[in-house]
């Protein structure tokens, strides 16, 4: 398995790769992960992820300083490193999680050796542009080059996957690929216990990277539009380059005493945050699935999310939460009020539907489907989505 970002990195792609690798180990597979080293130390050793031991091939990496933690493998050595690891491991299958550096090298060398290749896309241009330092005028050109590179790398794979049907259509449209499989990242819902205790406060939770495309500023502005009687508290879990700017914005908006930035937390602390919350707010416009939203649903949280990219696949308007117009603080505030002012029975119904809807994303189905792809078997994409028609208010 090849990844440009892997634990201890904290993002959706890294979390998916970690859970997939661990799940495959638990099923008896010998799993090797090739990824950038998380520090200057590089080499091959055993690592434990999600309680499962796998072999990690950590490549020499450089820190990308425009980003607050990102390290990348050296692109001019990726083919040499890929050839070395493949010849050492002699894998039956190569599954890359990104086309940018590691996936490119692994796919080229695996193709030369006749090894079956599976590719998964987690890439969204919005997730990268703000860290490239490119002038605005050059960004469209850079995005075009990135999609051409994606077409070349994914074109080497026998099967290409991405987390949702909308994300698959997005990838096909931008690369010209056909037959992209929509396979949920999956979640082990048993690790997230619903909390049915009556609410004692109105607490809005955001979890994720604190970066521009997450549009956390929209959430903070929405808070100022909520009635003071709701006495809303906001918890922002995660780290990123925009944390300081958002802290300043909270001060400017006069809500700093109601907003807590917790930074990175442990898995146990994250589960506690889900239990404390009344609702998850997900204002991001660049989610190919959103593992965070799935974790919140498994914790029986209603969700208010931007009506963008793949979020409508998880948040069914009026069932387990509400969708709002992306970038619109007033609409976000209105939808948050619908949850926070709901009668107890209606609020519990939103919670119950979150738990019900997440069952379709059981990671067991995800593992079954990828095992079939690895074996070259024909697969039918798991049905996990039902996009509601949203009528005007």
TrEMBL record:
InterPro entries: Glyco_trans_1, Glyco_trans_4-like_N, Glycosyltransferase_grp1. Residues 198-349 form the Glycosyl transferase family domain. GO terms for molecular function: glycosyltransferase activity. Pfam families: Glyco_transf_4, Glycos_transf_1. Gene3D superfamilies: Glycogen Phosphorylase B. SUPFAM superfamilies: UDP-Glycosyltransferase/glycogen phosphorylase (SSF53756). This is D-inositol 3-phosphate glycosyltransferase. It comes from Agromyces tardus.
